[in-house]
Amino acid sequence: MSVGRSTLLVGIAGLAVGLGVGIGSYTFFYAEGGSYLKDDSKACNNCHVMNEFFADWSKSSHHHVATCNDCHTPSQSLFDKYYVKARNGYNHAVAFTTGNFPDNIRISDANREVVERQCRACHSDIVSAIEEHRKDGDLSCVKCHRSAGHLH
């Protein structure tokens, strides 16, 4: 490979890295990315499309006892918690940047499973008592209690 060609490749790689860091940094600061590393529910309201969900949570029965992260991120380990936050953050950033999201936002199956596990963790005594009496095995907290975290 000639010196000119390798210099060109290094320049292109440098440009790509610079653009990635620049765009990533701008997006992180513009979208207040640092706020998502905390447990403050106000961070979930950074995007206007979440206004309705935040307002619903503010009026819900869980408002005084649970933050968004208490229900929407795993509490079993820090790795799991921040993995889910990173996955959701990436998916939200792509969706909101491209405008490719439905008007009627719905929770994904993976995130519904997280919420279900969190309900069961906080309310384990009640859940185990109910499961003793239900034999069909199809117990779902979020199906029966849709309005516990967000009014519907």
Helix run count: 7
According to DSSP, the number of beta strands is: 0
Envelope shape: elongated
Taking the alpha carbons of the first and last residues, their distance comes to 64 Å
Describe the structure.
This protein is mainly α. It has seven helices and no strands. The protein has helices at residues 3-30, 51-59, 68-72, 78-98, 109-122, 124-133, 141-144. The model has no long low-confidence stretch (mean pLDDT 83).
Summarize the structure.
This protein is mostly helical and 152 residues long.
Characteristic key phrases:
about 150 residues; mainly alpha; 7 helices; elongated
Question: Which helices and strands, and how do they pair?
Answer:
Layout: H1 3-30, H2 51-59, H3 68-72, H4 78-98, H5 109-122, H6 124-133, H7 141-144
